[in-house]
Prior knowledge:
The complex is a heterodimer. Chain A has helices spanning 2-14, 18-25, 73-79, 145-170, 184-192, 207-213, 217-225, 257-271, 290-302, 349-365, 394-403, 406-416, 422-445, 464-479, and strands spanning 124-125, 199-201, 278-283, 306-312, 315-316, 319-320, 340-345, 370-375.
Amino acid sequence: xxxxxxxxxxxxxxxxxxxxxxxxxxxxxxxxxxxxxxxxxxxxxxxxxxxxxxxxxxxxxxxxxxxxxxxxxxxxxxxxxxxxxxxxxxxxxxxxxxxxxxxxxxxxxxxxxxxxxxxxxxxxxxxxxxxxxxxxxxxxxxxxxxxxxxxxxxxxxxxxxxxxxxxxxxxxxxxxxxxxxxxxxxxxxxxxxxxxxxxxxxxxxxxxxxxxxxxxxxxxxxxxxxxxxxxxxxxxxxxxxxxxxxxxxxxxxxxxxxxxxxxxxxxxxxxxxxxxxxxxxxxxxxxxxxxxxxxxxxxxxxxxxxxxxxxxxxxxxxxxxxxxxxxxxxxxxxxxxxxxxxxxxxxxxxxxxxxxxxxxxxxxxxxxxxxxxxxxxxxxxxxxxxxxxxxxxxxxxxxxxxxxxxxxxxxxxxxxxxxxxxxxxxxxxxxxxxxxxxxxxxxxxxxxxxxxxxxxxxxxxxxxxxxxxxxxxxxxxxxxxxxxxxxxxx
Amino acid sequence: xxxxxxxxxxxxxxxxxxxxxxxxxxxxxxxxxxxxxxxxxxxxxxxxxxxxxxxxxxxxxxxxxxxxxxxxxxxxxxxxxxxxxxxxxxxxxxxxxxxxxxxxxxxxxxxxxxxxxxxxxxxxxxxxxxxxxxxxxxxxxxxxxxxxxxxxxxxxxxxxxxxxxxxxxxxxxxxxxxxxxxxxxxxxxxxxxxxxxxxxxxxxxxxxxxxxxxxxxxxxxxxxxxxxxxxxxxxxxxxxxxxxxxxxxxxxxxxxxxxxxxxxxxxxxxxxxxxxxxxxxxxxxxxxxxxxxxxxxxxxxxxxxxxxxxxxxxxxxxxxxxxxxxxxxxxxxxxxxxxxxxxxxxxxxxxx
Lengths: 490, 352
């Protein structure tokens, strides 16, 4: 109808007409725009169209047939020929127009557009090239030679320990082991950026962080051999370390459960106003667990000082990341929770150190969580129970093992600074090897935990039912000593 | 967890009259069960600054059953922490906070939702103290309303005591009166072990006069509600009140039942139970759990194992059927043990 077409053209004038506003003034509580309205002003950017349409039908004069919007202004406007004074602009706040409680900063649109599934690219931060040379324009973190050498020595000792313990498992000395080959820089350099007061909640591949804290080789060996000197009293599998004095919480096998624990610890630290944060390590696979999403959300809502360090090594046992998640990497996920994040080259020890140090101070001073995605590659098999050649090509494995070794990359930088040389390297390797073998021999010769340790620590003191059960077991052992292991002291 | 021989703090093992009030009371103050829980909670929060409450809507809303009403204004947002809806994660969060020095109390809006937290409870809460070799303690309290309510539907009528009872490392207690609610709440908070405190949806408005003085009950003790000679009736939570109703009828018929509210669901107070069995030689268990794998099933096994020679009759057990709780009123009533059924069961057992 001609009426409607003229109405369309006048709509842009209507936006500012006082009649339009005037009628609306008394009822301006919940201005509504129907998204199904046709775009009658394509020449105007959609954000400017903030039609305040009166949805009550009472003002529609009789005789006017239905319009395409539920508006009464057009017919009225056309009946007036006098211009009304312009209403002042102030008080018409953009945000007033969309005041649903669920969202804070957005505006209406009448463009039917979907938000893309592809996120903005998250760049990967690094400062050293593959050859261990500073990248053009990179600002290297302040790192004294003592610290750099300590990091390097830690990484080498870690590598040697991993190798020897893996072999020990193959020889049947203990039942299980997980190495962290390819991820040494990611783990040790991140631990080096923390303070000893920061509580670490690790997944299982972060023995490097515990080693950094001061857990010595003998203590590692005791835990893997599950003997009486193990702090865990022989109750957990190998590599499930825990040490209260090193602020490293005992590893628990189920994936991602430690993320919520870390948020709780951060909450506790925040309540105590300590100059420390909670740090949690997890892999790319863990980002699928419910606990990851909830913990991230909680940490953001609670403004808890926690560092979420994700070792994205591309593989969750045999599941590649394409089968794990569809976002482009892990760092991009933090935006959904209202959290800051960074993506770092995990094989560049300096970059990891720098990023974690910076994140830590932000987390504590601003009381916010930070997600740090550390990109790396799992050169090792998932564990001693896995043979990754079944699902990964030999070329891929050897490329990463030989060409992209993070320890070698860091060593090149050290050598470039004149802080290290080949001879020192050989000495360090053989020295570590000797120490580890001695620790293993010592651990192997120690007794297993006593039978009483089967029943202690379930509660703070032993209840009657467990006492009964213990005496039953002791009777059984006393009657049939040959049926029970002789190296378990009674 | 106290060894058998230790004394209880405050008021010790007391004989209760049928209404549940103490023999000496006319001092003391009257309140409802949820207020008693709140009193216990407040006293502990005042006493120890590391005690905090974590749960959904516990802060300014005051909790869905008003247990934490007014506490956020008093103690602040951080100690009465409102969480997003992720039970597994806020329970995990409480575990992490407990390991780093706090004493959190996790409130499940309904016990049934804590099934979502089963992973954290079974794999971490009960376990980390043991697997860490005693290095990390988890002094956490997990509480919430459970049991069959008034037409709340199957998912809101869960009895989780049967699922959690085999998780090692946990302690479980069930409160049934304002007096024991406050005492058990305080004891649970002071305990170094993870404790699950089972409250019942329908008991929150129970009124009772409780002492003005501070008292803490023992987590592992049962409560002798009514001494008797003929038969031992073991019960807990809401069924205590059904049993007491049935007892009125039984007394008028000339029976003298002994009623014990077991209170401690894990571990059982076999000392009190055993003494009673030795006296009466007959046992009836009245519970709200499902028949299969419920508290009654474990209790029967424990009594049979320990007191077989004292029994003159097979142990009777009245429990809910192995069905999800229906919504329709009359059907729901049929799933819960009613006083006439208790009377009948006692009569049958006493024939032995």
